[in-house]
Write a structure and sequence with these properties.
The chain is α/β, with parallel strands linked by helices. It is 37% helix and 10% strand. Strands 3-4-5 form a 3-stranded parallel sheet, covered by helices on one side. Strands 1-2 form a two-stranded antiparallel sheet. A hairpin with a 2-residue loop joins strand 1 and strand 2. The longest helix is centred in the N-terminal third of the chain and has 21 residues. The protein is globular and about 50 Å long. The two termini are 19 Å apart.
Length: 230
Amino acid sequence: VHRVNERVSVNSLALDDEPLAAALHAAMDARDALARADPHSPGAAVSWFDVMTAGAFRAFADAGCPWAVVECGLGGLRDSTNVLGAPVCVLTNIYLEHTDQLGSTRGAIAREKSGIVSPGCTLVTGLDVELAGEDEAVAACLGEAHARGVSRILSAPAAAHETHETLNIALAELALSEVARVEGREVGAELAGARGGGGPALLPSRMERTRTRMGVSVLVDGAHVPESVA
C-alpha cells in the first residue's frame, strides 16, 4: 500500500482525498462522541483499523455502492468488519497464520475465520467440504457456520486447481453467482475474460510486476505463509 486511499476503492479506483477525509472524520467524530458519553465504553477504545473500517463503510454509503467487497483485517470473529450482516461470505482457505492471536491449530483458526458467517448467508469456500471427517479445519468451519445459521455452502476445493489464480477466479465466480441470485440479474460477466488470462481482474501485490526508477523489473507478491506463495 503506497497511500491510505488504496484501502478504500469505489469502482476499482482508490478513493480521492476529499471523500476519504470526510468519511474518516465522520468515523472519528462518532468515536469521540462515544468517548465523551462513556470513557469506558468499547467505542472509546477503538483501533486505527476500526476507524478505517467505519470510514470505509461511510464512504461506500456516500458513494451509493449497492455492494462492497470487504476483507477482514485479522481472523473474522472479533474483527471490526464483522458488524456487517453480509449475504455472501467468502473463506478461501485455512493456514497456520497469526497463531498468537487466532490459535495454534487450523481448527482453532477455522473457528475464528468462520465467525464472519451471518444468519441466512451463503458461505463460499476453498475448503473441501467432503473432508469434514478428515480435516479439522473443515470440520470446525462447517460446525461454526451451521451454528451461526448459514443458509448455503458452496465449495471450490483448492486441490482441484493448479494455481492460486484459477482458485481465486473460481471462488469469485461462485461469490458473484450468489450476488446475482440475490440481485435477480447477471453480474460479474467480465470474469470470463479473466479466466483466459486477458481480463480486467487484478489482485494488487499478488504476482504484480513493476519497475523501479532505474528500470529494474520487480515482482511483488504479498504472500505471508508458504501455502500462499503464488
